[in-house]
Amino acid sequence: MSDEQVRLGELRDEIDQLDQKIMELISARAACAQEVAHVKMTANPGQDVFFYRPEREAQVLRRIKEQNPGPLSGEEMARLFREIMSACLALEKPMHIAFLGPIGTFTQAAALKHFGHSVVSVPLPAIDAVFREVESGAAHYGVVPVENSTEGMINHTLDMFMSSPLKICGEVQLRIHHHLLVSPKHGDQEITRIYSHQQSFAQCRQWLDTHRYGIERVTVSSNAEAARRAAEEPGTAAIAGDMAAELYGLQKLANSIEDRPDNTTRFLIIGREEVPASGHDKSSILVSMRNKPGALYQLLEPFHRHGLSLTRIETRPSPSGTWAYVFYIDFEGHMEDEQVRKVLAEVDEEAVELKRLGSYPIGVL
Ligand SMILES: O=C(O)C(=O)C[C@]1(C(=O)O)C=C[C@@H](O)C=C1
Questions:
Q1: Less CB within 10 Å around the terminal CB: N or C of the chain?
Q2: For the ACT domain, which residue ranges apply (predicted)?
Q3: Is this model's pTM higher than 0.90 or not?
Q4: Calculated CA dihedral for residues 68, 73, 76, 81, nearest 10 degrees
């Protein structure tokens, strides 16, 4: 045996022993989670038990990232623990997660990034269908897109909160890479049509104008649908992400064609319960103000005075009347925090209506 073979043999023995220990430790952790489920059920007999605890998961993942000794990166280590916790939660209760489908969309990728792969993910055809599925209790949680760094807010999601009783329980950000995809089945046939979702066309507009000028662009309901069509119709291509490419066996003609390298979409997790503070949280509200001079100043001034950081403010027309507006506001802090309580009490005094959409951990992954 060569020196290399001897050394490799030793290292692989060491890896086998470590794997054995890791397996025993993961099993002990899973048994602990089962016990947690038992405690939760006996403490709340006959009631809705919330097995999924977003604030606890955020704390665990943050601690892992902070204390990770390397050589793996903090992100990579947190991703591994994300999957371990996902499997532990599935032992307690398999979670049904509704998302804006079909399968292969970026929203599904976001759902799996947030909850891990041990959930049952349920594709639905529209954002309001995701809300309804969670409201009815058919799904435990839902995942919907809310804003894109290139294209701005997804107004349909914001507007749903005006009438829905659901709470925001979390957020997840996903880097969005779009590719120009073709089916290897169709050989070198000239591309005369490109399918994609309207948001994806918008995010790749400059690239398309430079590299595929004049080719017909056909808008479809999702990137996954675009990929499905490109897989079936010769002479067509799709703009979609990795999940859709894999699902429909497409090849990349051009990689990462989004105009902005930091193209990111933020998704919200919607559920039926309020989330306790995790120590690093964000809150969202909807406020409708009287139509008078200085209304916006009056609304924002208490946030400034109490030192609360606004992360997003968006205006939407009110469904109740012409020229009345509703403000959608995200800010740092939890509604249980003293400062936040004070600010919201002041806002409530001036507002026609204040709706608390929820406090939730700032995305960790
Ligand atoms: O701490 C809990 O409440 C648990 O149920 C355990 C656990 C975990 O595996 O760490 C699992 C699921 C929850 O979402 C949070 C954490």
A1: N
A2: 284-361
A3: yes
A4: 0
